[in-house]
Amino acid sequence: QLDLLWTRKQNVMYNLFDWPTQKHSKLIILAIANTMDLPERIMMNRVASRLVCSSTLLFRIWDCSKTVQKRIALPLVCFLLILAKLFPQLFGNVVAALSGDARRCLDICRRATEICECARQKRTAEVVRMAHVTEAIDEMFSSPYVNAIRNASLHEQIFLKAILAEFRRAGVEEATVQQIYHHYVALCRMEGLQSPTVSEIMAICSRLGACRLLLVEASSKYLHMRVRLNLSQDDVMYALREE
Predict the structure, then answer these.
(1) Domain hosting residue 108, numbered range
(2) Residues whose CB falls within 8 Å of the CB of residue 180, separated by 6 or more in sequence, listed in order
(3) Where does the Cdc6 C-terminal domain start and stop, copy by copy (predicted)?
(4) N or C: which end of the chain has fewer CB within 10 A?
(5) What counts of helices (H) and strands (E) characterise the chain?
C-alpha cells in the first residue's frame, strides 16, 4: 500500500520501483493506493519516472447497499431479514457513513444478525432491526482509544479533526504538525475559538501522543515533526461524531 511507504525523501518508493527496471530483473510490482492520482499528487519526478512502463487500474467506489444485498443471501439471514429488499440499502447507508471499508460493513451485518439470533433464542421470533445494527456498530467501534477521544478536551478533538482533514487532502496517512496546524486554525475559526499558539499546539500533540492516540516522530524540529494516527480513521470519525 503506497500510502504507507511515503517518506519525505521518497527513497523507499524510488528503490522499490527502480528494481523492476534493472537489467534481467524479473520482479513485478502490484501496488495499491487510496488516492487515484497519487503519482501526480505526491511523487517526485525521479520516482514518477520509474512508472513509465506501468499500467493503472481504477476501481469504482463500491455500492454499499448492493454489496450487502448480495452477501446476505444466506438461509439464516434471509429468514431473519423479512424486509430484505429495504434493509440492505438502509443499513448500508448507515454503515457507509461511518466506514468506507466494505469488509467492515459486512462484519457489522454479520454481527447484527448474530445479536438478533441470540435474542430470538431467548424470546419469541425476532427480525434484524436497526437496534441490532446500532449495538453491532457500538461493539465494532468500541475500544479504549475511542473512549479516550470522547473524553478528550475540545481542542484535542479539533486537532484530531485537523489531522483527518489533512489526510483527506494529501491522500497520505502521515503529516507534519505544520500541515495539520493550518487546518486546525481554520476549524477554530469555524467554532468561534481563539487559535492556540505553536507551544499550545505542541502541548496538545504531546498529550495525544502520551495517550497513544498519535504516533509522533521524535525530532527537535517541532513544526516539521511527522504525525500518524495509532488507530484507524474510521474509529476517529466514529468517536468524534455527534450523538
Answers:
(1) 75-141
(2) 159, 162, 163, 166, 227
(3) 160-240
(4) C
(5) 13, 3
pTM for this prediction? 0.58
Q: Let me know if residue 221 belongs to a domain.
A: yes
Q: Are residues 204 and 233 both part of a single domain?
A: yes
The helix (H) or strand (E) run that includes residue 176 is strand 175-176
Q: Are residue 171 and residue 231 in the same domain, yes or no?
A: yes
Same structural domain, 159 and 214: yes
Whether residue 93 sits in one domain with residue 159: no
Residue that finishes a domain, picked among 115, 141, 167 = 141
The letter for the amino acid at 220 is: S
